[in-house]
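Need tokens for this chain, all 332 residues.
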Amino acid sequence: MTFVNPLYFLLLILVVPYVVWYIIRHKRIDPVLQVSSTAAFKHYHHTWKEYLVHAPFVLRIVCFVAAVIALARPQSTGEWSEKNIEGIDIMLCMDVSTSMLAEDLKPNRIEAAKEVAIEFINGRPNDNIGLTIFAGESYTQCPMTTDHAVLLNLLNKMECDMAETGLIEDGTAIGMGIANAVSRLKTSKAKSKVVIMLTDGSNNRGEISPFTAADIAKSFDVRVYTIGVGTNGTARYPMKVAGYTQYINVPVEIDTKTLKHIANITDGLFFRATDNKSLHEVYQEIDKLEKTKMQVNKFDTHSEEFFPFLLIAVIALALELLLRSTVLNKLP
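Here are the structure tokens for all 332 residues:
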């Protein structure tokens, strides 16, 4: 049995001075009668009320101790269990350049990508998943983790305004994004190590070329699945002019040849997503990847055991009040 709030046991120290005070007080108020001889009391028998005289004190102690134990929240623990689960190590590598604000996907490319990625993460609870973002530069938004609540929170905070406001350089550094993601996977011991790279443009920034990054991924047995997102031809794009937002049609420039070659080098696949539905289907296809069997030691959840102690405290208090108001009632 374990206790959630063990510090409450310090309150039991108060029992010691209370017992000492009770003994001293009882001796002081104990009636004394001086007699010349005790022969008259030779055959005196104690009544049952005399045996109950200290019962309220005992019940009060029991009530206090039981209440303290209840406050400490005792919990019964389960047993260690071993189970085999399947999972892989995945780094999501997502383009956050300003072009991801184009609205050929609804409500725009970045929000559509986030929505599908969230669904993908929720469907893989056993996987180590991390997030790398890139525009003209790249950095890790979230290292690989099985704490998907943290990952989803950071994914929701991912916005294109980082490049728009100058926090990172705008552009499309595909090679830097892949290299950053691979750096998080290179020490992984999982059987399958995967980078899912999503972009809506062609490489025009970065110190590492996409093909060099693909070779690095290959050397660490990391497969890269590339996704080119955006409609064919042109896309509706919001542009701020003199404090107002105007929409213009901009050409969609996705270097599919490069993305295909990256996937081929790393034994991955290339996907083209032109709308929300096809993007969703891409992630469904990737979800069918080979999974790694892992043995996980899991400890069962705790169950609360405070109620019996709380019940004992209530019963003891009720009995004390009952005795004091009936058979042990004292007249002033």
